[in-house]
Specification:
Helix content is 39%, strand content 25%. It has one domain: Rossmann fold (3-Layer(aba) Sandwich). The chain starts with 7 loop residues before the first helix and ends with a strand. It is globular, with a radius of gyration of 21 Å. By secondary structure, the chain is of the alpha/beta class. It is built from 10 helices and 11 strands. The longest helix is centred in the middle third of the chain and has 22 residues. A hairpin with a 7-residue loop joins strand 9 and strand 10.
C-alpha cells in the first residue's frame, strides 16, 4: 500500500496535536497554558469504567471540539438524535457534526419487528399484515450487521478525522469478543495511517480481563473513569493508565461537571 499523501494546507491547519475535548485537560496533559492540543494525531483513546462516571459525556465533549464538523463523527449506541442535539445545544457546542445513533436504528429495525411479532401472536393477523409480510419475508429475517457497518463507516473517514464511539457495549453484546477486537484493530490502523483521533468507550463490567488487556494493547491512551463517595458527595475521576510515549501524563484527575464547561478538571495527582 502506498503511503498516504497529506495536503500541506491540512498539515498546517491541523498540526501534530488535537484536543482531548477541554483546553483545561489539554493544559494538564501538556503542562503548558499555550497549547494546540494534547493528543498526537493518529492516536486511539480508550475510556473504560463505570456507567455514570462521565464517559458518555466525555465522548460528546471530545467530538464537540471539531476542527472540521464535516469530518467529525459521533456514534452513539444508547441515545437518540434528539437527546444528543439537546445536550449539544445546552453547552452551545456545534451541532453540524455527523451523528449516527445505532441504538436508535436497532430499536426501530429490530425491536419494532419483535413487538409486531408479539402483537401477531396475541391478536392474530389482519389482511394488511399478511400482505406486508409477503412483501418483506425475504428481508425481515436478515439481521443487520452493525459491527461491519461501523467498521466500514469508520474506515471510510478521510485524513484528520475526529470520531467517538459511545459505546462498545452494544457490539460486545451482539458479537463474539474476538470479532469486535478484530474490527477495532482495523479501525485503529485506519486512524493511525490517516492521522485521525478516535475515542472508544466501553463499560468495565462488559468485558473480561483478557478482552480488556487486548483493548489496552490496541489503544494509545487508556483512561479509566471512576465514581465513588467522598463524604456525602460523589467524586468522579479520570485515571490515565496508559499514554504511549508519554509516561509523564499518567495521572489521576478529579473532575466535576459544570453547566458552562461540561467535564472540568479540579485536582491532579501523579500515579505510581
Amino acid at each position: 500500500m502506498d503511503p498516504i499523501q497529506f495536503d500541506p494546507d491540512d498539515e498546517e491547519f491541523y498540526g501534530e496535536m488535537g484536543s482531548i475535548g477541554s483546553a483545561k485537560f489539554d493544559t494538564i496533559l501538556t503542562g503548558s497554558p499555550l497549547n494546540d492540543g494534547s493528543i498526537p494525531r493518529g492516536f486511539t483513546l480508550l475510556a473504560i469504567g463505570n456507567q455514570g462516571a462521565g464517559m458518555d459525556l466525555m465522548a460528546k465533549q471530545f467530538a464537540s471540539v471539531a476542527e472540521d464538523p464535516e469530518n467529525t463523527l459521533l456514534v452513539s449506541t444508547a441515545e437518540s438524535q434528539a437527546e444528543i442535539l439537546a445536550l449539544y445545544r445546552r453547552y452551545n457546542w456545534p451541532t453540524d457534526i455527523m451523528v449516527r445513533t445505532m441504538g436508535e436504528e436497532y430499536n426501530q429495525n429490530v425491536l419494532e419487528r419483535d413487538l409486531r411479532a408479539s402483537r401477531y401472536r396475541l391478536e392474530g393477523f389482519t389482511m394488511q399484515d399478511i400482505q406486508r409480510l409477503a412483501q418483506t419475508r425475504f428481508t425481515e429475517n436478515e439481521v443487520h450487521d452493525y459491527l461491519t457497518d461501523l467498521t466500514s463507516q469508520m474506515t471510510s473517514l478521510p485524513p484528520y478525522f475526529r470520531a467517538a464511539v459511545d459505546n462498545l457495549d452494544f457490539f460486545f453484546a451482539r458479537n463474539d469478543a474476538s470479532r469486535v477486537i478484530s474490527m477495532m484493530r482495523m479501525i485503529q490502523a485506519h486512524t493511525q495511517m490517516n492521522r485521525g483521533i478516535l475515542l472508544l468507550n466501553v463499560s468495565s463490567d462488559m468485558v473480561d480481563k483478557s478482552v480488556e488487556r487486548q483493548l489496552y494493547a490496541i489503544c494509545d491512551i487508556v483512561m479509566e473513569f471512576e465514581v465513588g463517595m467522598l463524604g456525602t458527595d460523589f467524586e468522579t475521576r479520570m485515571v490515565i493508565r496508559k499514554f504511549r510515549n508519554g509516561p509523564e501524563n499518567l495521572k489521576a484527575i478529579s473532575f466535576r461537571v459544570t453547566k458552562d464547561e461540561a467535564i472540568t478538571p479540579e485536582t491532579v495527582d501523579r500515579i505510581a
